């Protein structure tokens, strides 16, 4: 887990909500436009949009770029744990304590990451984007969070018992824990970045609005 990337706690401290001076009225009118166009397929919509310049693409793709940065961190940690299970041997340069810490940090950082998203990012996006709708009929990305957390809870409980010495770490048991939520995790990491990609974001937001997003 030790690398040059900032952790999610630091990201939480940096998050700011876009100013609402003009966005409130703009959001209401734009939201109506999105509702009116709900029946239009994404393919048809894309055909009506001009090609983005390189500069505009960077603006519209900035959230996807930042999200992928953190997602790669989670992929790296999960893969390190899972490879050890498959090989039936933890990394040679890693003590048992360090290995368990990798798993617990994955749970902690991913939990913080999701908390930041659901508190500061998704509510803003959900004003216009059905892909981030919360509540009773939550969008798939939000439902994936719930599935992931069920798996993480089991992993955290197991690793804490191993850490305290209550039980001995068994890689076959750890693999079962990881496999129980691995598929939904990897699907979510890919799908979320794609949803935040430039070609999708441009359907809902202006470049200026993208510059004020909390990432």
TrEMBL record:
Residue ranges of the region described as Disordered: 1-46
Superkingdom of the source species: Eukaryota
Q: Which Gene3D superfamilies match?
A: nmb1532 protein domain like
Q: Which InterPro entries match?
A: Dimeric_xanthone_biosynth (IPR053206), Hemerythrin-like (IPR012312)
Domain Hemerythrin-like intervals: 66-194
Q: Where is the composition biased (Polar residues)?
A: 22-32
PANTHER family this protein is in?
EXPRESSED PROTEIN (PTHR38048), HEMERYTHRIN-LIKE DOMAIN-CONTAINING PROTEIN (PTHR38048:SF1)
- Protein known as: Hemerythrin-like domain-containing protein
Q: Which organism is it from?
A: Oidiodendron maius (strain Zn)
């Amino acid at each position: 887990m030790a690398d040059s990337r900032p952790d999610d706690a630091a990201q939480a401290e940096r998050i700011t909500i876009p100013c609402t001076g003009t966005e409130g009225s703009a959001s209401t009118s734009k939201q109506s436009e999105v509702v009116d166009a709900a029946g239009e397929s994404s393919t048809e919509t894309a055909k009506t949009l001009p090609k983005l310049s390189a500069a505009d693409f960077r603006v519209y793709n900035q959230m996807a770029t930042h999200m992928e940065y953190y997602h790669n961190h989670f992929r790296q940690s999960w893969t390190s744990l899972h490879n050890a299970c498959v090989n039936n041997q933890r990394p040679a340069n890693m003590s048992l304590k360090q290995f368990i810490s990798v798993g617990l940090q994955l749970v902690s950082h991913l939990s913080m990451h999701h908390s930041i998203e659901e508190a500061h990012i998704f509510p803003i996006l959900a004003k216009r984007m059905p892909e981030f709708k919360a509540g009773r009929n939550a969008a798939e990305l939000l439902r994936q969070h719930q599935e992931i957390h069920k798996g993480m809870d089991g992993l955290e409980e197991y690793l804490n018992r191993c850490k305290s010495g209550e039980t001995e770490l068994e890689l076959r048991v750890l693999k079962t824990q990881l496999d129980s939520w691995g598929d939904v995790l990897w699907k979510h990491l890919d799908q979320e970045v794609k949803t935040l990609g430039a070609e999708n974001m441009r359907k809902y937001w202006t470049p200026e609005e993208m510059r004020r997003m909390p990432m």
